[in-house]
Amino acid sequence: MTQPLAPGSVIGIFGGGQLGRMLAMAGAGLGFDIHVYDPDRDCPAGRVATRICAAPWDDMGAVQSFAARCDAVTFEWENVPAAALDAAQSRTPVRPGRKSLELTQDRLTEKTFIRDAGGGTVEFAEVGSLAELETAVEKIGRPCILKTRRFGYDGKGQAVIRDETDLAAAWAEIGENPAILEAFAPFQRELSIVAARTLTGEVAAYPLAENDHSGGILRVSKAPALVSPGLQSQALDIATAIGNGMEHVGVFAVELFDVDGGLVVNEIAPRVHNSGHWTMDACACSQFEQHVRAVAGWPLGPCSPHSACEMINLIGEDVVPWRALAADYSARLHLYGKRTVRPGRKMGHINRISPLPRQS
Amino acid sequence: MTQPLAPGSVIGIFGGGQLGRMLAMAGAGLGFDIHVYDPDRDCPAGRVATRICAAPWDDMGAVQSFAARCDAVTFEWENVPAAALDAAQSRTPVRPGRKSLELTQDRLTEKTFIRDAGGGTVEFAEVGSLAELETAVEKIGRPCILKTRRFGYDGKGQAVIRDETDLAAAWAEIGENPAILEAFAPFQRELSIVAARTLTGEVAAYPLAENDHSGGILRVSKAPALVSPGLQSQALDIATAIGNGMEHVGVFAVELFDVDGGLVVNEIAPRVHNSGHWTMDACACSQFEQHVRAVAGWPLGPCSPHSACEMINLIGEDVVPWRALAADYSARLHLYGKRTVRPGRKMGHINRISPLPRQS
């Protein structure tokens, strides 16, 4: 039986962005020391951590000595190189483990896993060449969407194929990389469920959030989403099957499409997720604390909200009017400590909380 | 007109204990970098800060170079030496300023200030010798309480004088230091109000908390306290007079006795306060964020609670059963990262939140 980590233990985080920063603060709240591994010494998470190990991802000596100082290691970013995880795992427990990454770093593997786990997916096909793309478009029909299998996020590495789209151009647009072709989901709305799974296999989930994307980037999440108890229950079943299938330890998110009152899985994030930031101000226990609890081998805290919440991302220039945001009495402001504004860069978010709708 | 500090600015904190730690995390949440000054490099706040300056309080060179790197400096501890504050002030704004410390570091000065500001106090007298103690006890009557004017906290530096107490022994017990003799307040309960005051003089306060002390240490706070609107309003008036009188910038707390439905001021803490820890889980904006906002020259956030809360301190050995605390579903656990348990040492606290009583 694995022992829970005592307060004062060291939890390591691979990746020093805003998710690592919010994880580090939640970990400190429970009395842990946090060490961060990131190539950038001045990264957002490093500035709130006990120690920052600034080294490249391919420096296995640095990874191993980092891991050797940690009682457990986790990550904020699903594209941590597998070799780094393996090197860390040779010194200390890594939670979640390799399986969660292997099943989600590659879109084709991920969709296949989701289908096999019983979560609905859109129709999809493997694409390794222009000829295979032509065959796949014949089968799936237009419009459809071509995505690189690896290293896509926030809408990057994708090409939409419409009636007029030239397939050779689309294939070139994604760099002729190994890809997956997916049918368009005729969805009414985008939802997500943020769940956590413990070392002992317990799964708990927050209420569904309803999400608005634009330009491939999450803009707004509203939670709890107004859904039927049946849909919430279906989402929990999907999350449970996925969490168990990944043998996941920690928080993960499942992005869903609501298609005619049923749920289709879009993708899995094997980590804390932007659509769970609302939990920071509307739930007793945030997604970041839940993740730390799971990584430490602790029981989960409650996932029930005390308030309703609208989370609004501050992307790029959105953060420039910070004076107005600071003065907005109804906005709980969270800024990530990023030194420079860039278009599309997530700079912070605001949470607007309100009383929960009265139970009828 | 003083400009508000932009996100990315550096806020310095004198003192690296748990209050500094929770201030540091709140400051990071608003995008600030936090530097901590404390003689102990491994102090709780230093482990969540961007930079820890480990140097003695009397190293004025270290204090000045610390302050020179900060856009503003604040403190978690009212016994910061005045010389250190002055040295910092020569390089950067210090908020709150010297006046808040001068009026509260000395119990006699503090009680006189409170009385002059219109807050009720118990009867008190200056004591500088055994002869003055004898005269003061004649005047105030027994039981009464003898306290050193300076450096008392958590019940230290105090001697209770009962019918049978030998005055020479009491005078020896407090080290024959300059002292104040206070009458006992025949209070029904202990209350406190945590308030914040901005650079522009705006004052806001959280609802009153009801506090239980034992052995001179706060054990439990319940908030919002069940009090009449008149008592809440009287407390806000007292806090406003005290905050304005100190020309305070930041959070401060006023400890009060409820004596027959009226309020008597016990003491002032010119900083975030243990009896305000409930705000971390029951209010949209915690006392720590309020303090950072005030120090940064930002407007205050809301002081209204979304939940009711019972805060229970974890003192000394209370933290040993951390497994049970971690598994207590209704307890929001906050641990301070202290390396060793000592009797009377504040190791953490738990907050139990519940829905606010319905308005009648």
Task: Please give a structural write-up.
- 2 copies of one chain form a homodimer.
- The first copy, chain A, is an alpha+beta fold and 360 residues long.
- The first copy, chain A, folds into 3 domains: 10-94, Rossmann fold (3-Layer(aba) Sandwich); 123-183, Dna Ligase, domain 1; 189-355, ATP-grasp fold, B domain (D-amino Acid Aminotransferase, Chain A, domain 1, 2-Layer Sandwich).
- Helices cover 28% and strands 28% of the residues of chain A.
- Chain A has helices spanning 18-29, 60-68, 82-89, 98-102, 107-116, 130-140, 167-173, 229-246, 279-282, 287-295, 322-327; strands spanning 10-14, 33-37, 51-53, 72-75, 124-127, 144-148, 158-161, 179-183, 189-197, 203-205, 209-214, 217-223, 250-259, 262-269, 307-315, 332-335, 346-355.
- In chain A, strands 9, 10, 11, 12, 13, 14, 15, 16 and 17 form a 9-stranded antiparallel sheet that branches. In chain A, strands 3-2-1-4 form a 4-stranded parallel sheet, with helices on both faces. In chain A, strands 5-8-6-7 form a 4-stranded antiparallel sheet, with helices on both faces.
- In chain A, α2 (60-68) packs across α3.
- The first copy, chain A, is globular and about 60 Å long.
- The mean pLDDT of chain A is 95.
- The A-B interface holds A 4, 6-8, 21, 24-25, 28-34, 47-50, 281, 284-285, 293, 298-299, 301-302, 306-307, 319, 322-323, 326-327, 329-330, 332-337, 339, 348, 353, 355 and B 4, 6-8, 21, 24-25, 28-34, 47-50, 281, 284-285, 293, 298-299, 301-302, 306-307, 319, 322-323, 326-327, 329-330, 332-337, 339, 348, 353, 355.
